[in-house]
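Let us practice reading a record.
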Amino acid sequence: MIRKVCAAFMICFLLPGLFGCGGEGEGENVNSSGIRERLKKYAPFEITVPWNLLDENRKEALEKLYLAATVMDELFLVQVYDGNPVLRDRIAGMNDPDLERYFRINFGPWDRLGKDEPFFGDEQKTDGANFYPADMTREEFERSVAASPGEKESFESNFTVIRRSADGGLEAVPYSREYRSKLIAAAGYLNEAAGLLENVSLARFLRSRAEAFLSNDYYESDMAWMDVKDNILDVTIGPYEVYEDNIFNYKAAFEAFICVRDPEESRRLEGLKGYLLKMEKNLPIDDGYKNLNRGTESPISVVDVVFTAGDTKAGVQTLAFNLPNDERVREAKGSKKVMLRNIIEAKFEKVLRPIAGNIIAKEQLSLVTFDAYYNHILLHEFTHGLGPGRITLPDGTETTVNKMLRETYSAIEEAKADVGGQYNFYYLIDEGFFPRGLREQTAVTFLAGFFRSVRFGVESAHGRANMIAFNYFKEKGAYVQDPGTGMWSVDLEKTRGAVRDLFRELLMLQAHGDYEGCKSFIERYGGMGEDVKQSLARLDDVPVDIEPVFEIERTARR
């Protein structure tokens, strides 16, 4: 108890503005009515558990997996900001349920839908979150790497944090050491769940991931995850995405998806695997830039979410994902696409459909459909696994696209997947995999989807990616606004050519590892014009996203 009080005192002493430790109310900067208004941006959505599909062993295993996922919540909380746990306790004692809820949605005191502005206190969020020392500059990092080339791999690793050494310099610390106690707990839950399961491949992955938490080597467990099959419980857990690192996009954040898989729907989509190499060959770039040797296993899982944790739950909710990100695994096996069906359905009904009614021209409104929305999301994830991955620079250096593009990578990669998803949708319609009627539907639904995604803020990778596509298509005449009504429509004759041209430009930026070119491209196309701002003002009464309310949080035995 004394240690907790002292720790809180020290943090208040060091950060008085954030924690309001001066006089009563001083520095807290909290407006309760303002918090209630912010909460209206999120539409609560109940996430139930299909207990009837699970036998007793799976039910118990699901609860163990849920507990492991809650550890990912705790890990991500401190990855965002090391003062978050104390701040959470302080807010919990303020008897303000709305503030507590908003802090929980955002994993900290910064509004993820509001350009990361503080809604509690006045401390500004650092670009590097808690992956780097708060006072570290990009130049200092690069000088340290240049001075010790042997440390370059560990400094740039997805699974290390950068800390001050005893002499005031920088050192890389493995996640397995930085977060050891929490990772030991998570590994224990995964091993307990594995012991309850009859599915050998899933149990193997869980044990392998538990080992990875303690060894800091995730390769074998990523390979094991790709081999999971015939599973009802679907589990993705660990450090994956790099969006929280806004300095370099190097450091992976912890997250988890605990789901129940629909085997029948997953099998229905398995036919897409046969098109993976064909889609790679069909990319609108020269063959020398195509990744024709990448693995093509590419399993697909259609799942209903039971619980999500960490990075994926912070602010905007994930619709689908394509993992792992390790290019070695992708080259050996491809990547797995996971569609979060109940989340997609919720966003379409609660967010996209109302947006379309306010934005899309009346004569094209009927072309906004769930099938077009769902299948574009699917092809977005497929497209993440296409195109340049490992590249060779003119001087012969072998590297990867993400390392060369640094902080621009996330926006360019998301734009590639968005636009490439459209490009591949058209291709698969031509091939007869999807019906002809989806050609117009996907064009208009994609436009409506732009206004959904860009509301997350152009500072986010997904928001910036959407602005790039929108501004490019408008420049090419594919998107047109009626000056009288302010409603938007798609020029169905021009949109396919614009999709092809933009997809090629993005792929070539990646193929060349062109960091400066990416910065220029984002600067040219990544801003929000007045026409978009005025259109977004018409959506004030439409939720920006959903807020999952998880049944398992109320029912799981701890």
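A brief commentary: The chain is about 50% helix and 15% strand.
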